[in-house]
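User: Show me a protein chain along with its predicted structure.
Assistant: Here is one chain, sequence first, then structure tokens.
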Amino acid sequence: MLGVGFLDSLNRKPVTVSGVTVKGLGSDSVLYNNASVSAIYLPLHTTKDSTNYAISFKNGESVINDTISVFHKQEPQFVSPACGCVPIFKVDSFKVKNPGGLYKTIELYSPEVINVEQNINVKIYF
């Protein structure tokens, strides 16, 4: 899973964002529904070189909608005869449709997506 952490732009510490909804584009999956989170974890396509998500945030009474696009490559890594292969992803780039409005800065922090729980790959500063 691609880890996306939300941080305060002034002190660079995690911040909880309320009313987060994330849906996979091109599928009917809802990954987060009106959640209060300081990070989100997003699955990446194993058969495509990009994965897209619709994301929305509640800001008071209004809702801010955006699109996240992740461009990546997959390299299968052999684990063992019993486990077989696991996908290791390398993120080439990360884009949002509306930068500069809600977000102060977006940083691709760790481009290698490995099967480590709670790993943050992208940092979004509010």
